[in-house]
Write a structure and sequence with these properties.
It is a single chain. By secondary structure, the protein is α+β, with helices and mostly antiparallel strands. The protein contains three helices and six strands, in the order αααββββββ. The protein has helices at residues 3-26, 31-38, 51-68, and strands at 72-80, 85-87, 96-114, 122-136, 142-147, 152-161. Strands 1, 2, 3, 4, 5 and 6 form a six-stranded antiparallel sheet that branches. Strand 3 (96-114) and strand 4 form a beta hairpin. It is globular, with a radius of gyration of 23 Å. The N and C termini lie far apart (72 Å).
């Protein structure tokens, strides 16, 4: 076999593999996923598994946070309720911060701090209301927000230096 023949065969394989990958990436999901997205009768908050509704819930949560933003942004994020939030932000000793947390979807989530004296434990309802906590920088603080059983949607959070 010549060098040219090997090159042509490799090029042909590359084209075939590309076509297969392109087809698999553009193929729609199963009928159940398509029905959930197109079903006008189901409320948005009960369908957080579809990409469209998850994006909408994320936008709603971020809008709620933007309405209460104050001070200088230190850290922020958005996670699925099922993943939760687990953060150890680097906070300057003696400086005061405000933590804002909002959940959009169904159910609720539980906010906790380690050490517990860093902030108050609270329930965050998944109704787009914002839960705020003051935090004073010092020792390492861990912020955990875990979805309650059956909760779904997204949790957005931000820490502002005030």
């Amino acid at each position: 076999m010549t060098y040219r023949g090997t090159w042509i065969r490799l090029a042909g394989c590359a084209v075939a593999v590309s076509a297969v990958l392109l087809t698999s990436c553009t193929t729609s999901g199963n009928d159940e996923d398509r029905a959930a997205v197109s079903s006008p009768s189901a409320p948005t908050a009960t369908r957080p598994t579809s990409a469209t509704s998850e994006k909408k819930l994320t936008e709603q949560a971020q809008t709620a946070l933007a309405a209460v933003r104050s001070g200088t942004l230190v850290e922020a994020g958005v996670e699925r309720v099922t993943d939760g939030i687990h953060s150890e932000p680097g906070l300057s000793k003696g400086k005061t911060y405000r933590l804002n947390v909002v959940c959009a979807g169904t159910g609720s989530a539980q906010l906790e701090f380690l050490p517990a004296r860093a902030g108050r434990a609270a329930t965050v309802p998944c109704d787009q209301s914002v839960v705020q906590q003051r935090i004073t920088g010092g020792e390492l603080v861990r912020i955990d927000v875990e979805g309650s059983k059956g909760a779904s949607g997204v949790i957005a959070w931000q820490i502002d230096a005030i």
